[in-house]
Amino acid sequence: MTFHPPTLLLCSVLAMAMSAGLMTLFAFSQRIYRGYFHWTAAQALAALGLGLHLLRDTHPAVLPVANLLVLQWPVLLLAGLRRFYQRKEMTLPAAFDWALLVGGYLLWLSTWISQADLMWRIAAFSFAAGALALYTAALLVRLDGYATSAGLKTLSVALFVSCGMHVWRMVHSVIVRHDPDSAQVLLLAGAVIPVMLSLVMVYLALLLTYERTQHDLGESQRQLRELANIDMLTQVPNRRHFHELAGRLLASPGAAHGASLLMFDIDHFKGINDRFGHKAGDEALCDVARSLRDTLRVGDVAGRIGGDEFVVVLPHTTVEEAVAVASRIVDPLASRPQMPLGLSFGVVRVEAGESVDAALHRADQALYEAKRQGRSCAVIATGDNENPVFAESMPLGLMPM
């Protein structure tokens, strides 16, 4: 079977133009990201370069432009990937990409200007194209997130295969440089390689866009969960999420070893808002939450359950140890430079099988008793909801307001 080279080259041009057209159509009908139009431009310019190759016999002067347009594909692809993954740094700067393109192009151009043998010109072009493909693939492999991206893995494999084909083309052109028939085969191979990459890129552009959309969707869902679970001002779990976490903790087998619950609020918090404004009140809440986070262990559960009221569940902790935790929470607040803060604590031991609401109710009674006994102290409550027994208040060294 004989092949008609101009017809095959024309089919290659049409295939690349179609791929560029499909990517353009997708861009105007679906959401895309930064860098996508670089990929589309790479496809279109490479198609134009192959199209100019149709004129190389009648207009040899177009060959330098045609080869430059074909050679640019990996570099413009890489420029798009740099924008697509703008938060992930690549090993080498973008200037190196273009320097490599210019160097490879000048290598081929020197053989063309010197009117070297066709096979040497093919070898020089193949060397430049293979080096660019290998360089691009190597950068992708080192990109953060490569291991989890099917799109990047597929693209790197396609580039490595392209590099291998260019190496074969280069070596073969040197070995059979005096065979005219082989020259035609090698010229056709030079058109087939970019077409193969172009068709693969249509799929990969859609795959990378899909992966990015899935990532953004997952990030949005994470942010929504955070908004639903975390108090945005203090960055501790809100009331609903605290109940979930505390219920899960108390239902775990380890809860049999006992847990204590602290409920506390800021003394005279309304006065802070009235005298100094709500900004000062917000700062006080944030400082309390910061001290809380700095004090607690990994397994402890804290939450803001309303206004200036916070609650903490301390697994494997006696009430005496819980009072010591309360003292550590208070220490940085009592020496606050802008305004010392006082905290009042209600402390209870969570009974076996007791619900979170029942323990909170008993701690709330103890907190009320702490306020009745003068604030800036901790009161331990024992007994049940109907007949609580309050211990004597324990001052925590706070500066009363």
From TrEMBL:
Report TM segments.
none
Give the EC number(s) under which this enzyme is classified: 2.7.7.65
Gene Ontology MF terms: diguanylate cyclase activity
The record's section on Pfam families has: GGDEF (PF00990)
Q: Which CDD domains match?
A: GGDEF
Describe the reaction catalysed, as an equation: 2 GTP = 3',3'-c-di-GMP + 2 diphosphate
What Gene3D superfamilies does UniProt report for this protein, alphabetically?
3.30.70.270
Protein name stated in the entry: diguanylate cyclase
Q: Which organism is it from?
A: Piscinibacter gummiphilus
